[in-house]
Amino acid sequence: MLVDRALACGLEVTVLDIAASVAAHPRDDARLIPVDFDDEAAMGATFAEIAGGQGGRIDALVSLIGFTNDPAPVGEVPLGQWDAVQQGNLRAVFVACRAALPWLEASGAGSIVLVSSGQGVRPVPGFAPYGVAKAGLIALGRSLALEHAPVVRTNMVAPGAVRTAFLAGGTGREARAGASIEDKASRYGAAIPMGRIAEPLDVVDPVLFLLGPGARFINGETLHVNGGGLMT
């Protein structure tokens, strides 16, 4: 949805994702590059390749990386799962931002939007690894906003529940056992003042707003998109 909307706005789009997700979602209207987010040198080379194919420019970076853990109290979370969630949700974003920053700075008006979560502000029992990683993402974004303005702006979007494959574990991972996406959407939506969970476009449009000139004086902010389920 974000790629479709960005293309409709006339943007040139490159998508970086793990190989499994790239293979599962082919398209011919945007460049797709499978990457290893753990490999800092390879990520740097990838961003240089992207810039080379775009006249030496990268103007914006959006991070949509994210997957959660199997529900468990903090005292019962396996260390390996804790590490995997931190690495996938926080470290990978850090590596991507570092690789993109030289190009964003060279553009003269770069913009970063990191997609965090309401759980980064209000934890949910059983999901400490994910909440901690998303809180770290907000702190990372604020640090980038302080250190790289005014040349590069950085902001965060923190959605609540969204009707996507993430509710079942994410597109690049095995679906978690339990209720279907629709069952979860109905249950979560009942607790939201707007009466439903977010649709993808409810999050995509705020991301594009923060990237663009209409947000030219917004920097270091976290925009909560949750239908009133969390008010800050």
Automatic annotation (TrEMBL):
<dbReference type="GO" id="GO:0016616">
    <property type="term" value="F:oxidoreductase activity, acting on the CH-OH group of donors, NAD or NADP as acceptor"/>
</dbReference>
<protein>
    <submittedName>
        <fullName>SDR family oxidoreductase</fullName>
    </submittedName>
</protein>
<dbReference type="InterPro" id="IPR002347">
    <property type="entry name" value="SDR_fam"/>
</dbReference>
<dbReference type="InterPro" id="IPR036291">
    <property type="entry name" value="NAD(P)-bd_dom_sf"/>
</dbReference>
<comment type="similarity">
    <text>Belongs to the short-chain dehydrogenases/reductases (SDR) family.</text>
</comment>
<dbReference type="InterPro" id="IPR020904">
    <property type="entry name" value="Sc_DH/Rdtase_CS"/>
</dbReference>
<dbReference type="GO" id="GO:0030497">
    <property type="term" value="P:fatty acid elongation"/>
</dbReference>
<dbReference type="Pfam" id="PF13561">
    <property type="entry name" value="adh_short_C2"/>
</dbReference>
